[in-house]
Amino acid sequence: MRLSCIKLLLVSSLVGLAVPGALAVEPQPEPAQTEQPLAAADEPTPAVEPEPSILDIASTPTQVLPQPEYDLMLMGGGLATCSSMSNRSCLEQTQFSALAKTGNLYWLQQSLLQNFATAEVFSAERKTLQQQLVQLFNRLAAEHTAPLTEQQLVELWRAAPATEQAPDGETLWQQLSDRELNVVFDYLEVPTLSSDGKYRLTEHVDLAQTSDQHSAELYREFVRLAATKASNKGRSAPKLLMVTASSRDPFAAVDFYLDAFRQAGAEVEWLPLTAALQAAMQAQNCQALPQFLADIHGSYRREQVYADLYALKLQACQAGSKALVAKIAAADGIFFNGGDQSLTYQALRFADGSASPELTAIFGAVANKQLLVGGTSAGTAVMSGNQWLAPQLAAVPMISNGDSYHALQYGAVAGPAPWPGCRKENRCPDNLSERQLTYTAAGGLGLFPLGVLDTHFAERGRQARLLVLQQATQTRLAFGVDEASAMLVDLGHYATGLVQMAARGAGEVYVSELQSESSKTQLLAHTYTLTAGDTLVWQAETLPQAETLTPAESSPQAENVPQQVTLTLVPAAAKTPLTEQAEPLHSKSPLFSRDHYRSLSRSLCRSNFHSATVSEPPYLIRLSKDGACSADAEGNLSYRQQLRIISPEE
């Protein structure tokens, strides 16, 4: 879809939208007036909006828990944390010890090259490409006999000239898919050792020297919340389990998270539970762990690069599921990293969708208010689903892939996500685009039953993809969490129809409520925006009979039992309503790219206009105020709006 650049035209009707990409704005009406829907030539007239089911903040009595005890801390990813491998996130004076790992190392050794040359890792159609790479690396190996950093290897590779037998290095680089590139690096990587060769160097973290203190504070907040669970058990320092199941390489980030949570004040242990480990335990074949890592994660030779961590994983496999469950039962918090949510799903649910013993243990601990569950990025998205708390309701899906414009153009597909780079290999499943919106219909782990969860939200313009998925699956609520931000959730009163949520961090928590008038050609949602300190209360007036805090499993005969649900936004005490705002509107195109939507949304809040309409052919996108905006002294906003996306008739 071709998207033209937006021109800012301060007009009061959609007539000005004859210019593609134009932004039309409507002045703020007088209080006694009733808004009339805007109309444009050759465009359908939007229906008059119904009264929102979202309740007015000031006029609605709301039950707010005076001392919530949160069960979930769901982060949006993008935690820019100072470490020895990411010094760009550090203050200038940061220094690390000589035992700190600063990067991966690669070696063009003949033994490694021979293993790569014979490995069955490229498809039959691309074996020639694999052999051309071997020839190139053999030439480089003759001149470079010591380990190389990643940057050194890439520069040498891409600068290599062509020969009679193979094209130049840059051509080979461009021909590789992401999966194939990971394979190459895995086969050439060697451990990073101390100067005497006795120790594997580990990545070090420095929370105090992190330039983005919002990111550092989220680690500390997780530890503080877990400390509440520990205190109830008579302990001061919380015991955390850290899970890297979302990673293609589940060993790479272990040292980082262990150090980060230790600095935040916790006793932390790596729980080596992954899809590969679960498969090995089910097959009762722990010696096949390397093969399961290759087949499921696309990760190779990790037992050689991370021998110490692999040994822990092998021990966990041999000890079996009961030992993992015992660790979960003794923990105060468990944290899931980012990457690919489908990998974490496979680590904790079996192929038929039923819960593993480890997931059942998590359910029980959360139900008893003994465990805080956290996640970032994929570790947040995987929490979607109501298989545990409300299996008799229609399923809440788990989003797995896609961007907003592909979602608008091609809709949502239930099934596995295409892997990055599948187009280059000509192996995308069902010929799907790599950016196709996909989802798991039955849901993810099922710890968050209220709606779909999405992450990296405003930064990647994911508002439309979330709304498309809501419409396709008729999921009423969806939640998007920005980077370096988190949503806290207290599930303790869910069975009685009350869930309290709160926002933390630098960005926003976005909530989308699908409206009954929404259709494929006219998407419509009421939306909330929360920032740090705000509270959101979910209240269900009609609860299904079986909705209890027990680790129930998903019913194959789930019904769409109607619920009377209301949401109420309670701004932080320091926020006051914005009045007499007259700032100009600012917008960039495409609207659902980067943080352009968030920018326009905030700008509308601070303007004296009631709505703004953007033309991005073939779509007409209208954003309208739905009540007053509130702000604190730092400019953090809380507000309700309405999003309407009109697309051509099919």
UniProtKB/TrEMBL annotation:
It comes from the Bacteria. Residues 1-24 form the signal peptide. Gene3D superfamilies: 3.40.50.880. CDD domains: GAT1_cyanophycinase. Residues 28-53 are annotated as: Disordered. Keywords: Signal. InterPro entries: Class_I_gatase-like. Residues 31-41 have a biased composition (Low complexity). SUPFAM superfamilies: Class I glutamine amidotransferase-like (SSF52317). PANTHER family: CYANOPHYCINASE. This is Cyanophycinase.
